[in-house]
Design brief:
Layout lengths: L2 H11 L4 E5 L2 E4 H17 L7 E5 L4 H12 L3 E5 L5 H10 L4 E5 L3 H7 L8 E5 L13 E3 H7 L14 E7 L7 E6 H15 L6 E4 L6 H13 L2 E4 L6 H11 L3 E4 L1 H9 L13 E4 L6 H10 L4 E6 L8 E3 L13 E2 L4 E5 L12 E6 L6 E2 L3 H7 E7 L10 H4 L7 E15 L5 E6 L4 E3 L2 E3 L1 H8 L5 E11 L3 E10 L7 H11 L8 E2 L1
């Protein structure tokens, strides 16, 4: 099974069913599949070869969805980039993955023109929108997606891809100050989608509302999982207008709603939200950062028929665990047990399993674990390491006292596991509780943020002598970004000046919330 088969198989079963609802309109599975085929044919005609990378730099839209499936159908590797990314970082990403194609929209043209000056590998740029409006301003190697959709035939191309081949590179902040490219194969992504849809009990009857960007893997998988099941996916560009989101939930009778804590905080501040009847909402999921217990209680009052799933995951394996909804009152601080087809262990600094209640590093094994970091063998070797486990140990339960001391009777089997860098403890029943992170990565608004990346930007500002960025606890954001700054003597920089510069050079979620 390949990721693009999700769309193709659902098209065979549900050809005229609405697959996607976006601001541009409503699109059936047949229409999405035909447009994706046209994208793939255009890419192949321009020389895209198996394994070539195509960067998709777009807001949530039908063009973004058909582009990612079109890249996969052509045998390529799609790279979703946050739509608020600035030119300098976009250049880095294009060059780092040596992208042969960039797919974007006319609204991103100023950033694209600046970014592409230093992008050496690009052979073609595809832009959605009305080409006539920007005829003279377009780079020479640009084609219009609109023209492409009207000219090519929507027949599927042949492909020699197997499930071990690379499907996507998902960039995530790294402690070096540069993003790391997480390599996910078709097998990785299909396995993750299979496991998640299994415990969420997704079906073709689901209507999933996604307000998260597709560059955030949590948002991306809403489309992948929805299309796998033949469900309907509603894509909003952001959670900027909560009342609009509520109206959509009511009008479309949404059954699934993925959130992060900042979304729950905003929803719960809406005074009249309780007057609505949300009986159609089947489930709410949360990941990226833990939901405050108070939020869980209030969400249950507002959405009484919805099951709430607290989950834990990381980009390197997509998802690790989920808390069954019937446990949320019993263990509200837990992120649950391993999801289907995944095994987990908590180990000490020497790599030996620890007993119940003992804090150690969480390691993960399963077909959803990444292939590694793009062209970063040393970083990959730090995260994907051999692990000696007892052959018959049940990994959903904590080890016994004998096992935790290394006294296994069954023998050992050496395997490679993902060392998450996150510290957890496990209770007597095998449920996980997050303790801390081993590195200094900040998780704010559901996104990973590298302090060093922001510090590098701050040091570009004339007048700043020293800068340090830290995460501070925040009930809404999970962690808020705080910048500590020392100015040169005699320099008078205002908070607005510094924040303005940051907002011009980093994504919105990386702009500091506090300055000192």
């Amino acid at each position: 099974m390949l990721v693009n088969n999700f769309l193709e198989e659902s098209t065979k079963k549900y050809s005229e069913k609405i697959a996607l609802i976006v601001s541009e309109g409503r699109f059936t599975y047949r229409e999405v599949d035909e447009m994706a085929n046209k994208v793939s044919q255009a890419l192949l005609a321009e020389g895209l070869e198996k394994g070539d990378r195509a960067v998709i730099f777009m807001d949530n839209s039908v063009d973004a969805v058909v582009s990612l499936f079109g890249v996969l159908k052509a045998g390529g590797v799609f790279v979703m980039v946050n739509p608020t990314t600035k030119a300098e970082k976009l250049t880095y990403l294009l060059n780092n993955c040596r992208a042969s194609a960039l797919i974007s929209s006319l609204g991103k043209l100023p950033v694209i023109k600046e970014a592409c000056k230093g992008a050496t590998s690009l052979r073609r740029i595809y832009l959605g929108g009305d080409k006539i409006a920007y005829q003279e301003a377009l780079p020479k190697k640009t084609l219009s997606l609109m023209e492409l959709f009207s000219c090519n035939h929507g027949h599927p191309p042949s492909s020699s891809i197997i499930d071990m081949d690379l499907a996507s590179i998902i960039y995530t902040s790294g402690s070096t100050g540069h993003p790391k490219g997480v390599m996910m194969s078709h097998l990785n992504m299909v396995s993750a989608a299979n496991s998640i849809t299994q415990y969420l009990e997704n079906s073709s009857d689901d209507i999933i509302l996604n307000v998260l960007p597709l560059s955030f893997d949590y948002g991306l998988y809403q489309v992948l999982m929805g299309f796998k099941m033949g469900a309907t996916v509603i894509l909003e560009r952001a959670f900027l207008y909560p009342y609009r989101v509520i109206d959509i939930m009511m009008k479309e009778k949404v059954t699934g709603f993925p959130i992060v804590p900042v979304i729950s905080a905003i929803l719960l501040q809406m005074e009249d939200i309780k007057r609505h009847n949300f009986d159609h909402l089947r489930y709410i999921t949360n990941t990226a950062a833990a939901l405050p217990v108070s939020h869980i209680q209030k969400l249950r009052a507002v959405f009484p028929k919805a099951r709430i799933y607290s989950m834990y995951g990381l980009t390197e394996c997509k998802r690790v665990s989920y808390l069954p909804p019937d446990q949320i009152d019993i263990r509200p601080n837990s992120v649950g047990k391993a999801m289907p087809n995944v095994e987990i262990h908590i180990v000490d600094e020497t790599g030996n399993p620890v007993g119940p209640g003992v804090i150690g590093e969480l390691i993960v094994n399963g077909p959803n674990v990444m292939k590694g970091y793009w062209e970063m063998p040393e970083e990959t070797a730090k995260r994907l390491r051999p692990f000696l486990k007892p052959v018959h140990q049940l990994t959903t339960s904590p080890p016994s006292e004998k096992e935790s001391k290394g006294g296994f009777d069954q023998g050992f089997s050496g395997e490679t596991a993902l060392y998450t860098g996150d510290l957890f403890k496990m209770d007597e029943d095998g449920y996980l509780y997050f303790a801390a992170r081993k590195d200094d990565i900040i998780k704010s608004r559901g996104e990973k943020v590298s302090p060093r990346e922001i510090e590098n930007i701050l040091y570009e500002i004339d007048g700043i002598v020293e800068a340090a960025v830290i995460g501070v606890p925040d009930p809404v954001l999970g962690e808020a970004i705080k910048a500590l700054i020392v100015l040169k003597d005699g320099v008078n920089l205002s908070e607005k000046d510094i924040l303005r510069y940051c907002s011009q050079h980093v994504e919105d979620f990386m702009v500091p919330t506090h300055l000192e």
